[in-house]
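Retry 2 of 3 after timeout on previous attempt. Resubmitting structure tokens to design endpoint.
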């Protein structure tokens, strides 16, 4: 569902994602809602991350907090890419200093077959209700961004039992047990595709598919073990009519394959100059790609980097300004506001 703004126009972010001319380059940030904001940390003093996700009014509040500080062009719903693993039958917790822990890990075909089918409208209703609340609070110029994890990234967490640097168990399954890999990826693909469609029905104007760990793969492995499943998810999301952003980190060697897999917008991290990455993906819109650590730089250096990205975009329609991955803890909210204001000012068009 895309809410129309002034004169019936879609939100600026939606129009940019479609490659249309916009009055300015829209800007939002991955991990825009959350841990760098003191008002979020105050909520976390009495509520865990999963408790916030389970309570729509709290998730909506956290989603809206950054929009009270700066005029970003979108609100990304507060949730977690791993929420779907819970109704699939696995235990999810967040351990201090360790990140997500999934128990038991899925290491074989029997474990993959044991995963439950998910009625997303019921099992993930809290996120859908949070989207409805946020959409009702925002003006029509501001987009609501929904999201889900891509099949490979969710699978890697399920197989490893948490985060990983080497992805040994994930690649072991890929290479040695194709039946288990296909069964697991198909279960995840079905759930993610349904969840993205449900988010659009609930009021998301744009959806993003996060393939955060796919940069661990070679192009050959991506084509063989990932592309068919990602493509199915992306096609299902595109069928909703909402623009779809396809994002991965460390994907300099995969951009053409990710474009082949699908998405209206391809996300670039900061390791690829924006103009070079855009040239490689052809006619898609592009998102990115400020290094999130640049927000710790002095203002003149931060300004230079923002201006450089805008210059590389060349004032072309179809650029969504963002960081190249998520905002990190201890980021100064004033620096975030500085970037938003500078992007709007420097990209203003007649």
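Retry 2 succeeded. Sequence:
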């Amino acid at each position: 569902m895309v809410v129309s703004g002034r004169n019936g126009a879609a939100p600026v972010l939606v129009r940019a994602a479609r490659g249309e001319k916009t009055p300015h380059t829209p800007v939002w940030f991955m991990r825009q809602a959350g841990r760098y904001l003191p008002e979020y940390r105050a909520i976390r003093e009495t509520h865990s991350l999963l408790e916030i996700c389970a309570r729509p009014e709290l998730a909506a509040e956290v989603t809206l907090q950054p929009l009270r500080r700066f005029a970003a062009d979108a609100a990304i719903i507060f949730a977690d890419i791993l929420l779907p693993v819970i109704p699939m039958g696995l235990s999810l917790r967040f351990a201090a200093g360790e990140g997500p822990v999934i128990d038991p890990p899925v290491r074989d075909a029997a474990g993959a077959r044991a995963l439950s089918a998910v009625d997303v409208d019921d099992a993930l209703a809290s996120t859908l209700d949070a989207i409805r609340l946020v959409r009702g609070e925002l003006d029509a110029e501001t987009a609501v961004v929904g999201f889900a994890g891509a099949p490979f990234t969710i699978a890697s967490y399920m197989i490893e039992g948490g985060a990983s640097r080497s992805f040994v168990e994930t690649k072991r399954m890929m290479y040695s047990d194709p039946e288990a890999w296909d069964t697991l990826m198909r279960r995840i693909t079905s759930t993610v595709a349904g969840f993205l469609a449900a988010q659009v029905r609930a009021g998301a104007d744009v959806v993003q598919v996060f393939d955060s760990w796919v940069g661990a793969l070679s192009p050959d492995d991506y084509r063989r073990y990932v592309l068919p499943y990602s493509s199915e998810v992306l096609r299902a999301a595109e069928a909703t009519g909402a623009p779809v952003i396809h994002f991965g980190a460390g994907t300099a060697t995969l951009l053409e394959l990710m474009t082949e897999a699908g998405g209206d917008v391809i996300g670039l991290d900061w390791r690829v100059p924006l103009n070079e990455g855009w040239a490689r993906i052809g006619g898609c819109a592009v998102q990115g790609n400020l290094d999130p650590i640049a927000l710790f730089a002095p203002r003149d250096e931060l300004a230079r980097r923002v201006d450089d990205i805008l210059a590389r975009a060349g004032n072309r329609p179809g650029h969504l300004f963002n960081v190249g991955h998520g905002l990190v803890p201890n980021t100064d909210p004033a620096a975030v506001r500085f970037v938003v204001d500078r992007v709007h000012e420097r990209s203003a068009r007649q």
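Attempt log closed. The chain has 16 helices and nine strands.
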